[in-house]
Structures are given as C-alpha cells and as structure tokens.
Design a protein that fits this description.
The protein has 100 residues and is an alpha+beta fold. It is 34% helix and 29% strand.
C-alpha cells in the first residue's frame, strides 16, 4: 500500500470555489478502484493551502486514477485556481502509531 500526499495552494479568491467543487467530486476519488480512502486537510494558519491524503493498493492503481477520465475532468477544472505549482509525494509508512 502507498500513501499519496498532494499539497495544493489556491488563489485567495478561489479557495472557496475549490472547497465547494471538492464536495461534488470527493467520492469519485474515494471510491476509485484501488483507493482505500482519502482525506482533505486545510492548513490552520494558511487557509488557501490544502492537502489531499489518500491510500492506494499500489502505484499502478494510483496511475490508473491519474490516467482516468475522472482525473481528466477534475484536474483541468481546478488547475486555473492554483497560486503555486502543486507538490506531491507517494510514500510508504515506516511507522504507523495510529493503527492497532
């Protein structure tokens, strides 16, 4: 399993548009084959910064999503709202103190 973390920084006047749009598409990613779930975090001190945090069965499953029609509709919709270039990491847990 891998975890994908994506940092997105939006223009001041576009963050509310993103949050509203996210509410309409969040289940598309969350229920995509190979995805075990996704969270959206919003920075406390810089509310124009959000991070998605998702778990994937494999890198191939993530790539399948990134090559999908769904991603092809979502990404172009939000890309013009960015204030900075997105940053992304695919990581594997070295230690997880959250699971029992």
């Amino acid at each position: 399993m891998i975890t994908r973390i994506v940092k997105l920084e939006f223009q001041d006047d576009k963050i509310d548009d993103f949050i509203a749009f996210f509410e309409t598409i969040k289940h598309v990613v969350n229920e995509f084959p190979g995805c075990y779930g996704m969270k959206l975090y919003r920075d406390i001190d810089q509310p124009t910064i959000v991070m998605t945090y998702s778990h994937w069965e494999s890198q191939q499953d993530l790539n399948n999503y990134r090559d999908s029609e769904a991603f092809g509709k979502i990404w172009p919709s939000i890309k013009p709202w960015f204030a900075k270039k997105p940053e992304a990491w695919s990581v594997k847990a070295h230690f997880n103190g959250f699971e029992s």
